[in-house]
Design goal:
- The protein has 2 domains: 118 residues, Response regulator (Rossmann fold, 3-Layer(aba) Sandwich), CATH 3.40.50; 69 residues, Winged helix-like DNA-binding domain superfamily/Winged helix DNA-binding domain (Arc Repressor Mutant, subunit A).
- The chain is 41% helix and 25% strand.
- It has 8 helices and 13 strands.
- The longest helix has 15 residues.
- The chain starts with a strand and ends with a strand.
Length: 221
């Protein structure tokens, strides 16, 4: 998954980024709202982590603008305010969840997973499609009772496919979802990871199909 963290506290931001990257996610960091606006104008994010008090404005304004523009990207607000009225106001503005600082990183990861599950209509971490079961938390694929573990980048790529089966993804779109601005990546890397996933899916009635000149999609045969 590709996340955007909007946070001006460099120490906290680095800690959050390091933790989420360790979990296999791609994270872009914006220190202010102007940078965040530039990022969201060119990149589709799976989740936004939003601080409230930023050098060039109020994160609530950013959230309100996103929802007015009909953006459905989930937003978890990171706030120092613990009053009930503040939390209610954030939810009414369109926040999907909130966390009060100081942040517990294990809880943050769990809340991110929960918000993304809700967006996908899932109540748990396990997704079934065809004859396979995918556990995003454990990072495993189970086919006819046989379980295999996915490496980090394979896991995040398959997560993209399984959350949108039958949807066509171009190589450039997958590069955008799988790598941050700080990483050098090419479409050849996508071919490599797709090849690895295809080997993992051998024996299943689910496959990653190539649509020549357009990209890939996950289908049930």
């Amino acid at each position: 998954m590709r996340y955007l963290l909007i946070e001006d506290n460099e120490t906290l931001a680095r800690a959050v980024v390091d933790r989420l990257v360790l979990d296999g996610h791609v994270v872009d960091h914006a220190e202010d709202l102007a940078t965040a606006a530039d990022y969201t104008a060119t990149t589709d994010y799976d989740l936004i982590l939003l601080d409230i008090m930023l050098p060039d404005g109020d994160g609530r304004t950013f959230l309100a603008q996103r929802r007015s523009a009909k953006s459905r990207t989930p937003v978890i607000v990171l706030t120092a305010r613990s009053e009930v009225s503040d939390r209610v106001g954030l939810l009414d503005l369109g926040a999907d969840d909130y966390m009060v600082k100081p942040i517990d990183f294990s809880e943050l990861e769990a809340r991110c997973r929960a918000v993304l599950r809700r967006r996908g209509g899932e109540a748990r971490n396990v997704i079934s499609f065809g004859d396979l079961e995918f556990d995003s938390l454990a990072g495993t694929l189970k086919i006819d009772g046989s379980e295999t573990s996915l490496r980090t980048r394979e896991l995040r790529l398959f997560e993209i496919f399984i959350n949108a089966p039958n949807q066509l993804f171009s190589k450039s779109k997958l590069v955008d979802r799988l790598f941050s601005y700080d990483e050098e990546a090419s479409e050849n890397a996508i071919e490599v990871y797709v090849g690895r996933l295809r080997r993992r899916l051998e024996g299943s009635n689910v496959s990653i199909t190539t649509v020549r000149g357009l990209g890939y999609k996950l289908e049930q045969r």
